[in-house]
Design a protein that fits this description.
Helices cover about 25% and strands about 35% of the residues. By secondary structure, the protein is an alpha+beta fold. It is elongated, with a radius of gyration of 21 Å.
């Protein structure tokens, strides 16, 4: 099935944005329509998608401009970091630091509800282009040892799905911590600098624990957006 016209324009603009600086102007919608041989409505649909993704902003009467980049994710939504990076027009990649099968600690075995007291430990640095965004240390049940045969530079969740375990929901705890020597080495930040730390327990579609992880984000490169309601007084 042919790709929609607006999607081709959107991808072309994403590539342009990746090479631009914040507040650089984009072509106007009439200019995009002429350049790609489409209607102005189609051009507008492409730009609107980029606005919704936070990559560009409209200034009434002035035009559309490249937004200040953020590395954000909704804290109440289980969205892959790699997908968020792609939305920014950047290339996701993971550098594997450690991947092996090892005995589980009593706490790990309890939290993952293990019958076999082994875990698959995978430590990775998550990158957007060549910039480290997160140092991720994740544990999976030892029954998923075939994860060690997967391409761990790509999505581990996709590898879990291929093994019949679909990540579905979870809980997270957020805290602020200082970077230790290991963080400084892997994230290329000064030791003692501020990190956003997210500890997660992810369940599969059967409600069984699938992943116990800790992700450590440099405070100046990433943020989590939180949606909330206000309880009546």
């Amino acid at each position: 099935m042919p790709e929609p016209h607006y999607a081709r324009i959107e991808q072309a603009l994403r590539a342009r944005i990746a090479l631009s600086r914040p507040h650089d102007p984009l072509p106007s919608e009439p200019e995009l329509a002429r350049e790609h041989g489409v209607s102005r409505m189609t051009a507008r649909a492409a730009v609107t998608q980029l606005v919704n993704d936070g990559l560009v902003y409209r200034a009434p009467g002035r035009g559309t401009f490249v937004a200040v980049p953020t590395r954000e994710r909704r804290a109440d939504n289980l969205i892959r970091l790699s997908e968020e990076i792609r939305k920014q027009g950047r290339k996701p990649f993971a550098r594997v630091v450690l991947a092996h099968l090892r005995p589980a600690s009593p706490d790990e075995a309890t939290r993952l509800r293990l019958r076999r007291d082994e875990v698959v430990a995978i430590h990775r640095v998550r990158l957007a282009d060549s910039e480290p965004i997160a140092y991720e240390r994740a544990l999976y049940p030892g029954t998923l040892s075939d994860l060690l045969k997967a391409d761990l530079s790509r999505s581990v969740h996709e590898a879990c799905v291929a093994l019949g375990r679909v990540p579905t929901r979870g809980t997270a705890t957020l805290s602020a911590q200082s970077a230790d020597a290991e963080d400084a080495r892997e994230l290329l930040v000064p030791e003692g600098s501020a990190l956003l730390v997210e500890q997660r327990l992810i369940l599969d579609d059967r409600g069984t624990p699938l992943e116990l992880s800790e992700s450590r984000y440099p405070g100046d490169r990433y943020r989590l957006d939180v949606a909330f309601g206000v309880e009546p007084l």
